[in-house]
Amino acid sequence: MAQHLALGAQGEDLAADYIRTSGMSIVARNWRCRYGELDLIAREGDITAFIEVKTRRNLTCGRPEEAVTLLKQQRIRTVARHWLHANPGRFPRIRFDVVSVILRPGRPPEILHLKAAF
Q1: Residue 1 in this model has a pLDDT that exceeds 70
Q2: Regarding predicted confidence, which is higher, 4 or 39?
Q3: Which long-range contacts does 6-9 make (Cβ < 8 Å, 24+ apart)?
Q4: Half-sphere CA count of 46, side-chain side, radius 13 A
Q5: CATH code, 105
Q6: What is the pLDDT of residues 44-93, one digit of tens each?
Q7: Which of 53, 85, 55, 86 is nearest to 72 (CA)?
Q8: CB-based contacts of 59: which residues, under 8 Å, 6+ apart?
Q9: Domain count, the chain
């Protein structure tokens, strides 16, 4: 597996554990359609959260959450609409979250959950 893919997978695993520990339940991971992928889909009460996970080893290119650009947000919204259509049910409230993971050598992971980030 390419290094960047391994880093992303590690970040997603840490983010999923963090989300579960915070009391949310994971509905799906890495859900794909022809328009893209949703990293995590979770429930918190009556809220369905579509969660983008960004992982970095350092801050050379900025904080991980800064990589969720307007274009990326639009793509996530499009994929979320397709997930909602493919999973008929009652989804009274939805939101879009970002989980930022920084994995620096020799330090514990730094995880930041931005609820309703966009």
Answers
A1: no
A2: 39
A3: 7/55, 7/57, 7/103, 8/53, 8/55
A4: 4
A5: 3.40.1350.10
A6: 999 999 999 999 999 999 999 999 999 999 999 999 999 999 998 888 99
A7: 53
A8: 102
A9: 1
